[in-house]
Amino acid sequence: MKTFFVFLVVSASVGFYFWKEKKIHFDFISQMETQMNYEKTSLLLAKENRELRAKLSDLTYKINELESKNKYFASQAQGKKRSIASVPQMNADDLVNYEVYKWTPEKLLAIGEKEFHFKNYEKSAQFYNELLDRFPGHTLVNDRVLFGAGVANFETGKRFDWSEKHLARLVKLHPKSEFYRGAKLWLALSQYQQGDHKKFLATVEDFRLKYRNTEEWKILSRYYEDIHYKVKK
Fold it and tell me: Are the beta carbons of 154 and 186 closer than 8 angstroms?
């Protein structure tokens, strides 16, 4: 009888142990599934947020453009006493037409960033250039803006001088910027596209000495050896 009682106690203890372990296992799996669901939801919300920001930027641009056009046409309808020669004329090649619309710095930046997002680099570059040319000391002008302006101008395939101008300013004024190395890469490529090989080599030298294991150097090294030989020759 005593042996049977001991057997029951041991069996109950073993059963409780396995039940507890099984419960812990199920609790752990449940927690993991909950965490994974949170992460999936977070990623989905982040994607939706990016899409909404892009749509909002597009709508903001359209509203700003309509407001500016309305102001311009309203001023003409009011019959201001100005000669035809004094009225600002629209230029089809000038996508900004600042003299007509009198964009604020905020609107210039918003449109520049929006057009960059949709890879309309010519329009983006023009709005960036207008902002940086008319309001060079504005608080909006930071390293991110200079980098965006430099890349947008480069991607037009023809505004390499403006690209170099903006990126050189970033490199000079923001040596600790997160965009510093990227700016030097695009700066070197802008100089290369303009045929200024000596400037290209001077810019690339920093990568050759300090950043040989970077993706930037892998890109630039394609041009370096050939140009270096021609310049030294």
Answer: yes
- The tens digit of pLDDT for each residue in 21-44 reads 555 555 545 565 565 565 566 566
Would you say 152 and 128 are in contact if contact means Cβ atoms under 8 Å apart?
yes
Q: Who wins on pLDDT, 52 or 193?
A: 193
Task: Give yes or no for a contact between 168 and 184, defined as CB atoms under 8 angstroms apart.
Answer: no
3-state secondary structure (DSSP) of residue 179: coil
In this predicted structure, what is the pLDDT of residue 188?
Answer: 95
| Tokens describing residue 69 | 């056009």
- Rg of the chain over CA atoms, in angstroms? 31
Helix then strand count (H, E) for the chain reads 9, 0
Q: What is the pLDDT of residues 160-188, one digit of tens each?
A: 999 999 999 999 999 999 999 999 999 99
Which residues, including other chains, have CB under 8 Å from residue 150's CB and lie 6 or more apart?
Answer: 163, 164, 166, 167, 170, 183, 186, 187, 190
Q: How far apart are CA 214 and CA 212, in angstroms?
A: 6
Instruction: State how far the alpha carbon of 14 is from the alpha carbons of 2, 27, 210, in Å.
Output: 18, 20, 64
Q: How confident is the model at residue 232 (pLDDT cuts 50, 70, 90)?
A: low
Q: Give CA separation, 18 vs 13, 21, 28, 30, in Å.
A: 9, 5, 15, 18
Structure tokens at 12: 């109950």
* Alpha-carbon dihedral angle through residues 117, 119, 125, 130, given to the nearest 10 degrees: -40
Task: Please tell me the distance from the alpha carbon of residue 85 to that of residue 80, in angstroms, as a whole number.
Answer: 13
